[in-house]
Design a protein that fits this description.
Low-confidence stretches of chain B: 144-156, 335-339
Number of helices of chain A: 13
Number of strands of chain B: 2
Low-confidence stretches of chain A: 1-6, 438-450
Radius of gyration of chain A: 23 Å
Structural class of chain B: mainly alpha
Oligomer: heterodimer
Largest interface: A-B, 82 and 76 residues
Radius of gyration of chain B: 20 Å
Strand order of the largest sheet of chain B: 1-2
Bound molecules: CIS-heme D hydroxychlorin gamma-spirolactone, protoporphyrin IX containing FE
Mean pLDDT of chain A: 82
Number of helices of chain B: 13
Chain lengths: 450, 339
């Protein structure tokens, strides 16, 4: 990376910073956009079955919050799709014709989603209760589909297939082979589950905070129950899919694997670094705990399989941010494991239909788990993106060759960063306006919401 | 005609859908600004576009994905030269989305609502202004400059005068078109909902914005003759029929509004907007950027285009009926405050 002497950060760093900031901002809302519809559907379905007004109140409250978050998600997603061209024109000129298909299909998913969001959010009084509930299904399905499509594109960047290069020109394009590259299944499943996991724990956290503040009513209990019931199914699945994804990386992105697992020299029968936390800027790691042969076993199914070390790759072909990649990975896996433990522990204590654990520590743990589950998603993206460096398309196209030649990225990066900070504040304030306003008419004041 | 030409036509249609449908939503934002302090008018605006604007906005995403899948070289070239105006457009779009989301989510303090309304309105002016200016600037790029930067690596930066007089004029024209679309849509919707009390205010706005639209159209043409001769030349040859249709339709819209024929006015305004867009496309074809990059040179490989055409067709088969359902269901704004 070159850095002009007078600039505070280089052109490339500004572009990457802007892309990363935009994506992290968007991802927060995207995750909720995938997860909340599922929860609204569940609550509204429970209302149709049981007639219990608390379920309906929950569904309505969530759908109002969803309306705002969806608007922010749509706007921030638009920014990203423009930024692909504004920041990375050379990359898009190369990749657009190969990986455009999932993006176009994603457009279809957005259409269906946005149309039914309009019908669902504004149709409470225009549709029969059943028809209204059914109108929620296309939202949940197309939201998951849009996550699916976008992530196949990212999987292609990690494991590019479906084209040939001759003299710098793209030939023999096979868009289906590009979309269904070897990483598509594991990456997309991992992302969609990650979105559900963050939403369920996020919702549980909101109501756990409410209970900690003394609002221990049916409304809060039901919200926590339904979230954790979903979470308890998804969290262990995510652990398994994460392991599969690790194997995909091991097979197709050896340099990335070495970075995320902290393998600096080639080892056969490599052990899994359970600790080995890097201190960025230092060559050493702390908490070096190693489980013998486990990494070889996990990645290649053979306890003595060799694992290539980072130092076997030419310096220009390995990520300059190996330490940060490893840190993000440890964070994600640590949080993922913690979420599994927390949800199982909750249900073990609760057993069938027994009283829910509502002591202070359980509630505090739930309150912390919500933000951490969101953090795990962001960290996962950092693993994927930082681990792939210096490539934007692994092994094919370098990030440094992808950046725009237009000048002024320092200014746009600064502008967007300030804007995102402001918008985050306004959004939080907007959600508070919705949740602290008068509760839905016709319900007892006891149903006030966190 | 080649497959790439059909896809370019599809792209033009999608862009027209965005300009007219989302344009009316921008118009609602602009009118919202002009009705500051009149909660009934403002409320009817937010209630009307509430269920529709997200779906209309997706036309933009759809255009972008078609552009970069089918014409990656054009997307790359545009991205490079329009960094500044599009950054501002994007900022306006996201501010608008957040402000509208918070505003329609729940009522708050009056001062806060007024501020949000201002942000929503201002962003609704800025976005079409810069979209229009960018379009005009791109149309001005001429083949007189050095050869096209179709190659992925580098290429000469085009000079795109998006701050010039002609660009500014077309930007104002776009703002007037949006505001007029918004006003005309509102009159016909409110009339059907039987809210005659509110119709009059929007009719007045429709007359004002229609006149402004006509004025800016004529001015933009004059400025083109003076400052952008290549555009003027193409508009008065290939695009002439559409220019005339557009001007006549605008006049028809104003006359119908004056005679309280609201659905006729709506049809005329849509025709005017469509003629404006297609006048631009026809004048520019077969080029995607000014007279520089042709549809053919910018096109992706044949298998990519085929896949895209199939996918795009399937998308429309799935989406258009749903769109129809949405518009039928919300053909009138609900009289009550909805949630
Ligand atoms: C978790 C899955 C996920 C991920 C990783 C992304 N998105 Fe996203 N995106 C969604 C899931 C989603 C969504 C759930 O479908 C959204 C969120 C809220 C919404 O409006 O739809 C959305 C909205 C959204 C929109 C607005 C669509 C509309 O108007 O409804 C665009 C253009 C994008 N995204 C584009 C992108 C791009 C270019 C990404 C990365 C390169 C990306 N998204 C990552
Ligand atoms: C096909 C879709 C995608 C494209 C074209 C894309 C492209 C890029 C590019 C060009 C960069 C800058 C290079 C780099 O620093 O790595 C980047 C960075 C990044 N992307 Fe991706 N990406 C895609 C998918 C995603 C998605 C869906 C997410 C998650 C929401 C994501 C998360 C990130 C993050 C967090 C960074 C910042 C990393 C950094 O600053 O180095 N990416 N992306
Ligand atoms: C618990 C054990 C987990 C393991 C072993 C695991 C494994 C992985 C691996 C190896 C990657 C990198 C893929 C690449 O480089 O492309 C990854 C990415 C990712 N992880 Fe995890 N993960 C775990 C938990 C979680 C949790 C709990 C979340 C979120 C709630 C999450 C969210 C993500 C996301 C969003 C990505 C990037 C997108 C993707 O590749 O799908 N992960 N994970």
């Amino acid at each position: 990376m070159s850095s002009p002497g007078f600039a505070v950060i280089s052109h490339l760093t500004a572009g990457r910073g802007q892309m990363g900031t935009s994506l992290s901002f968007h991802l927060f809302f995207a995750v909720l956009g995938v997860g909340l519809p599922l929860m609204m559907l569940t609550a509204e379905g429970m209302h149709l079955r049981t007639g219990d007004p608390v379920w309906r109140a929950l569904a309505r409250r969530w759908s109002k919050v969803f309306a705002l978050l969806f608007a922010v998600g749509a706007a921030s997603g638009t920014i990203i799709s423009f930024e692909l061209g504004l920041l990375w024109p050379r990359f898009m000129a190369f990749a657009g014709g190969i990986i455009g298909l999932p993006f176009s299909l994603e457009g279809a998913a957005f259409f269906i989603e946005a149309i039914f969001v309009g019908i669902y959010l504004y149709g409470w009084n225009r549709l029969s209760p059943r028809a209204h509930w059914l109108a929620g299904f296309p939202i949940a399905l197309s939201a998951a589909a849009s996550a699916f499509f976008i992530v196949t594109a990212n999987a292609w960047m990690n494991v590019p297939r479906g084209f040939q290069l001759s003299h710098g020109r793209v030939t023999h394009v096979n868009v289906l082979a590009a979309m269904f590259n070897p990483a598509w299944a594991t990456e997309t499943t991992h992302m969609v589950l990650g979105a559900y996991l963050a939403t369920t724990f996020g919702v549980a956290a909101v109501y756990a905070v409410g209970m900690l503040r003394g609002r221990r009513d049916a409304y809060h209990r039901k919200a926590i129950t339904v979230s954790l019931a979903m979470a308890a199914i998804i969290a262990p699945l995510q652990l398994g899919v994460g392991d599969l994804l690790g194997r995909t990386v091991a097979q197709h992105q050896p340099a990335t694997l070495a970075a995320i697992e902290g393998v600096s020299h080639t080892e056969s029968g490599a052990g899994l670094n359970v600790g080995g936390i890097p201190l960025p800027g230092h060559a050493t790691t702390v908490f070096n705990v190693k489980v013998p042969n486990l990494l070889s076993l996990l990645a290649y199914d053979r306890p003595n399989a060799p694992v290539r070390g980072l130092d076997t790759f030419p310096k220009v072909d390995r990520t300059p941010l190996a330490g940060w990649t490893r840190l993000s990975f440890i964070g994600m896996v640590g949080i993922g494991t913690g979420l599994v433990v927390l949800s199982l522990w909750y249900w073990l204590r609760r057993r069938r239909n027994g009283p829910a654990p509502e002591d202070r520590y359980t509630l505090l743990a739930l309150a912390a788990a919500g933000p951490l589950a969101f953090l795990a998603n962001e960290l996962g993206w950092l693993v994927s993106e930082l681990g792939r460096q210096p490539w934007v398309v692994y092994g094919v196209f370098r990030t440094a060759s992808a950046i725009t030649t237009a000048s002024g990225l320092g200014a746009t990066f600064a502008g967007f960063t300030i804007l995102y900070l402001g918008l985050s504040l306004v959004t939080v304030w907007g959600v508070r306006r919705i949740t602290t306003g008068t509760p839905d008419h016709g319900h007892a004041p006891a149903l006030s919401v966190a | 005609m080649r497959l790439s030409d059909f896809i370019a036509i599809g792209l033009g249609l999608a862009l027209t859908a965005y300009a007219l449908l989302a344009g009316a939503d921008f118009g609602a934002g602009i009118l919202h600004l002009t009705f500051t302090g009149r909660p009934h008018q403002q409320g009817s605006l937010t209630r009307t576009i509430g269920p529709l604007w997200e779906a209309n906005h997706v036309w933009l995403i759809f255009c972008i994905t078609i552009l970069f899948s089918a014409f990656p070289a054009a997307f790359a070239a545009l991205g490079r030269v329009l960094l500044a105006p599009f950054t501002l457009v994007l900022m306006a779009l996201v501010v608008r989305g957040v402000a509208f989301g918070v505003l329609s989510g729940a009522a708050g303090l009056e001062r806060a609502d007024r501020l949000l309304g201002r942000a929503f309105g201002a962003a609704s002016v800025i976005a079409p202004l810069l979209f229009g200016a960018s379009a005009a600037a791109v149309a001005q790029v001429s083949s007189a400059a050095r050869t096209a930067s179709a190659a992925p690596a580098g290429g000469t930066p085009l000079s795109v005068p998006w701050t010039g007089l002609f660009a500014g004029m077309v930007g104002l024209l776009a703002v007037a078109l949006c505001a007029h679309l918004g006003a005309v849509f509102m009159t016909s919707r409110l009339e059907r909902a039987g809210e005659m009390r509110l119709v009059d205010g929007f009719r007045r706005r429709g007359l004002q914005t229609g006149t402004a639209l006509l004025g800016f159209s004529v001015l933009a043409l004059l400025v083109a003759a003076w400052k952008a001769p290549s555009v003027w030349h193409r508009l008065t040859t290939a695009g002439l029929a559409l220019v005339v249709i557009g001007l006549l339709a605008t006049v028809a819209s104003v006359i119908s509004l004056a005679r309280r024929r609201y659905s006729t006015a709506r049809g005329a305004t849509l025709l005017a907007g469509g003629a404006l867009m297609w006048g631009w496309f026809i004048a520019q074809s077969p080029h995607l950027i000014g007279t520089r990059l042709t549809i053919d040179t910018a096109a992706a490989t044949a298998p990519a285009l085929t896949a895209l055409a199939v996918a795009g067709g399937l998308v429309l088969i799935a989406v258009l009926p749903a769109f129809y359902l949405l518009y039928v269901l919300f053909a009138r704004p609900s009289p009550e405050v909805t949630e």
